[in-house]
UniProtKB/TrEMBL annotation:
Signal peptide: none annotated. The chain crosses the membrane at residues 6-23, 35-54, 66-83, 88-106. It comes from the Bacteria. This is AzlD domain-containing protein. Keywords: Membrane, Transmembrane, Transmembrane helix. Pfam families: AzlD (PF05437). The lineage of its organism: Bacteria, Bacillati, Actinomycetota, Coriobacteriia, Coriobacteriales.
Amino acid sequence: MTVIQQIITVLIAGAATILTRFLPFAAFRHGAPRYIRYLGDVLPGAVFGLLVVYCVKDVDVMGGYHGAPEAIGILITALSYLWRRNMLTSILAGTLSYMVLVNLVFV
């Protein structure tokens, strides 16, 4: 891929990202329908659950550390969410704790 093609690709990807971020605000300028508000309430939790399933799908509980780093990371994520009620903070806390456990503790 040439430099021009790379620049065009990045510009198109950026435009598509901006469009998908701003289009809902333009479409629902006068208020979103009830089912859209409902999806806005339930989808973050569903995506969070999907992330948990994806992260533990390849854990071998019969070998190695028996999934201890993953279990501790999930526990820290859940507890920090219950404590602060902030999904971004809880994801960050769980990810950081998992990375510390895997790279420094369970080596």
